[in-house]
Request: fold
Amino acid sequence: MHNTVYAKNDHYPMDIYKPNPQVWDKIILLNNIFHTENQFCMRFRASTFGDVRSDNNNFYNKQKNLIYYEKTIFDTLSLSAFNNQFQLDHHSFYAKPSFYDTSNYDFRLNEGSPNIDAGVIIPGLNTDYYGLAPDIGAIESSMTTHILKTEKEIDIQLYPNPFSSNLEMRINKNSSFENASLIIYNLDGRLMHQQQINSNNTTLNTNNLLPGLYIISIHIDNNDYTKKIIKVL
Reply:
C-alpha cells in the first residue's frame, strides 16, 4: 500500500506469482503508482484469484498495456472489462503520474498530478494527510487539487470542489481561447463530458455525473492541464 514503483527497461512494476496452490490470499494493493516504460504495469500468474483487494492505483506505460493475466492483455480501453470480470481496480486509472524529477529519482508529485487527493483512506495507516484525501504513491504531497498554477502563470480555479451540482471554472489570465476545451473522464477512462471554453468564466453542467471522483483535462493555449474533481450528493 502507498508504493511508488518506477520500472525501467523490461521489468514489471508488480509481478505476482504463487505456484502452489495457484491462489493468492490476503493481498492488498491500494494507493500505488505502477509506472513502467515497456512492460505491463501488473502481471498476475495464477489460475484463480483468492482474497485480493486492488484499487485506487495509478497505471502508466507508454504502450497503454496495463495488466497481463492468463495470456490476456488489458489496456486502457479494456480496463473496465478487467474491473467487471474480477471485481478489482474499479477506481484505478491510467494517467501520467507527473513526478518531480525521475532522472534524479525524485518521485514527489508535481502540482496538478492526478494522484493528489485520489487515494482511499486506510484506517490506522494514512489518516494524517493533506487536502481532500490521501495521495496515491509513496510520498504525500502538501498540495491539494483546489488551485493549479502552471509554469506560464495561468491560474485555473475549479469551485466548489467537491461539488454537488454545477461546477464553475475561472481562468485568471487573458487567453485567445483558440481551440480551448475541457474533457471529464471517470476513473475507467470513459468520456463523461466535454465542451469548448470561450471565456474566463465557464459553468459546467454536471447533472449526468454520479457521485464520485473524476479527472478533468483542460486544453488551453496549446497546453494541457489535469485536475481531479469530486462530486458529492
